[in-house]
Specification:
Layout lengths: L2 H12 L4 E3 L6 E5 L3 H11 L8 E3 L6 H4 L5 H10 L4 E6 L6 H4 L4 E5 L4 H10 L3 E2 L14 H8 L5 E2 L12 E4 L6 E4 L5 H8 L27 E4 L1 H13 L4 E5 L10 E5 L4 H16 L5 E5 L8 H12 L8
The structure holds threonylcarbamoyladenylate (TXA) and magnesium ion (MG).
């Protein structure tokens, strides 16, 4: 990444503009977290309701005290183990943090990304960068600069192209305000990883836990109706609807690709991490294939698949119901 591109991005942030940038999870759409106007612009570009908080991205642990009023022992342990990296901690907000960032809650989400370009950008900027995933609200996140450009066009000021994101799905979110961690969004860092680092078991979210919009039942949805089903049923369903001259898009791990016409098929990677890495690009490819329905083969229920299963469940819930074949 050239110094000019970094400088240009930082200049845009300083004057209150929006810059999309790569992180190790997905692309973020960044704005100066201390500039209320810039945050308003961010919400408008995403089409995001204003009571949904955004994550503040910082360059290093020294900046943590500017954003939170209480670094719990639990937060210290998790930060020491996983930062920089794909973990967001929910902490009590410091007094100066605006309602625009926190969605009016008493907590703030903070992350120190490990992606070298994200790190250089935020360090050079010097402040906190508020950055939701760089996609329209409720839609599929972006793992390539090209996805961001297609999603926003001229509605944002600048896109930094850092190639493909490594992890491919959004950060694990943990509420670290108490003694025991609460998992608000599963991710590449698993429940087991969190428990091992914290030395205590996770507790389930309660009605009083902070709200995370990525945990809305419907989210991460392509425009094509998406259904998750077992391989056998998927093949039968695909055969039936293509006979009725509907087109079917399929994301499947098993090597069962049928030969009949009207099917756009992507053979997904076998292991959970590679599957996650490619997930959003695959969903975007299938979503633009002009199909009537998008079928995803049911995945294993084991812990390493938890984050991907979470995203697919919400993507399916966010789909328009498919028209009857
Ligand atoms: O990997 C990621 O986390 C990416 C990259 C760009 O860092 N960002 C991301 O942001 O996924 P977004 O806005 O798409 O999802 C952030 C989630 C939302 O569900 C939001 O509700 C939750 O974090 N969140 C942020 N601040 C929170 C808070 N104070 N309390 C509870 N949830 C919070
Ligand atoms: Mg998002």
């Amino acid at each position: 990444m050239s110094d000019e591109a970094i400088d240009q991005a930082v200049a845009v942030w300083k004057r209150g503009g929006l810059v999309a940038f790569p992180t190790e999870t997905v692309y973020g759409l960044g704005a100066d977290a201390s500039n209320a106007d810039a945050i308003r612009k961010l919400y408008a570009a995403k089409g995001r309701p204003s009571d949904h908080p955004v994550i503040v991205h910082i360059a290093g642990i020294a900046q943590l005290v500017l954003w939170t009023r209480e670094i719990t022992p639990l937060a210290s342990k998790l930060a020491a183990r996983f930062w920089p990296g794909p973990l967001t901690l929910i902490l009590k907000r410091a007094s100066g943090v605006s309602d625009g960032v926190t969605g009016g809650q008493d907590t703030v989400g903070i992350r120190i990304p490990s992606h070298p370009v994200a790190h250089r950008l935020i360090e050079k900027f010097g402040g906190g960068v508020a950055a939701p995933s760089a996609n329209r609200f409720g839609r599929v996140s972006a793992t390539l600069a090209e996805h961001v450009r297609r999603e926003f066009g001229d509605a944002i000021d600048f896109v930094i192209d850092g190639g493909e994101c490594d992890v491919g799905i959004e950060s694990t979110i943990v509420d670290a305000t108490g003694q025991a961690p609460v998992l608000l969004r599963p991710g590449h860092i698993t429940a087991r990883d969190i428990e091992a680092a914290a030395g205590v078991r996770l507790i389930a979210p309660t009605v009083n836990s902070p709200r995370a919009s990525g945990t809305l039942a419907a989210h991460y949805a392509p425009a094509t109706p998406l259904l998750v089903m077992e391989a056998d049923l998927l093949l039968e369903f695909a055969a039936t609807v293509t006979r009725q001259s509907q087109k079917v898009a399929v994301l499947a791990r098993s090597a069962l690709q049928p030969v009949f016409a009207g099917v756009t098929w992507i053979a997904a990677p076998r292991d959970a991490q590679s599957y996650a890495h490619a997930l959003y690009a695959n969903l975007r490819t299938l979503d633009t294939a002009g199909c009537d329905v998008l079928l995803v083969e049911q995945l294993p229920q084991s812990p390493e698949w938890a984050a991907v299963n979470d995203r697919l469940g919400r993507a399916a819930a966010g789909s328009r119901p498919p028209s009857a074949p």
